Amino acid sequence: MAQTLLMPKATAIWLVDNTALSFDQIAQFCKLHPLEVKAIADGEAAQGIKGLDPISTGQLSRDEIARAEANPNHKLKLSEPKVRVPESKRRGPRYTPVSKRQDRPNAILWLVRNHPELKDAQISRLVGTTKSTIEQIRERTHWNSANLAPMDPVTLGLCSQIDLDMEVEKASKGRPLPTAAELGATLQSAQETERLTPSYERVEEKEKEIDADAVFRKLSSLRSAPKDEDDDDQY
């Protein structure tokens, strides 16, 4: 991994203020233009930036600065870092232990049935298999299809629950929302609901069916009965 200077402008500010290096030397070391270094020295650029000491960060040594000050043609070189950071390796297919490789077809069958939204590449990353094997299990053409049983890859130890949830979330982002039929909704259609008669209309119909004349006749008979009894008592 190539060495790079940390915070070049801040380093240039410190070198301008604390050394006798030429603008060209500072520009070459900090990967800046000499005119930009001159503007920093004149206070016209990088006014809000605090200088960074390259000696304290281990990027320059005092001897290297002294040699450059003594020789205007000397080019500053970065000091060798004390700690080497290993380069990040490119992530390849997931490694599956030999003892668990026989469980991969069962895990693939479980993923195909329970998460049909997952793509072949995602299943391959989760359990460390090939696309041809996934296609054979999808189409039931695998040599051991009759004996396969769906099993959770997390339970089998082929992947973690976090990895599985992340892949499912990625696959679900572009999917359309489920329809009412997929959700098993039982809502009645508008045509069926329009045929229903409101309850208050039913009450009105019942009230209309009551015979008003019969009600008044009954009331008049109740009123006349006490008068007849009073007339009999007078005699």
What does this structure look like?
The structure is a single chain. The termini are far apart. By secondary structure, this protein is mostly helical. The protein has 13 helices and no strands. It has helices at 8-18, 23-30, 34-41, 62-70, 104-114, 120-127, 131-138, 153-156, 161-173, 180-183, 190-195, 199-209, 212-234. The protein is elongated. Helix 1 (8-18) packs antiparallel against helix 2 (23-30), helix 2 (23-30) crosses helix 3 and helix 5 crosses helix 7 (131-138).
Chart the SSEs and their pairings:
Blueprint: H1 8-18, H2 23-30, H3 34-41, H4 62-70, H5 104-114, H6 120-127, H7 131-138, H8 153-156, H9 161-173, H10 180-183, H11 190-195, H12 199-209, H13 212-234
Q: TL;DR of this structure?
A:
The protein has helices spanning 8-18, 23-30, 34-41, 62-70, 104-114, 120-127, 131-138, 153-156, 161-173, 180-183, 190-195, 199-209, 212-234. The protein is mostly helical and 235 residues long. The mean pLDDT is 78.
In DSSP terms, counting alpha (H) and pi (I) runs of 4 or more, how many helices? 13
From the N-terminal CA to the C-terminal CA, the straight-line distance is 134 Å
Q: Which percent range describes the beta-strand content?
A: under 5%
Number of strands: 0
Helical percentage: 40-55%
Question: Main beta sheet, described?
Answer: none
| SSE order | HHHHHHHHHHHHH
Structural class: mainly alpha
C-alpha Rg, in Å? Answer: 45 Å
Would you identify the regions where 5 or more consecutive residues have pLDDT less than 50? none
Shape verdict: elongated
The whole-number mean of residue pLDDT values reads: 78
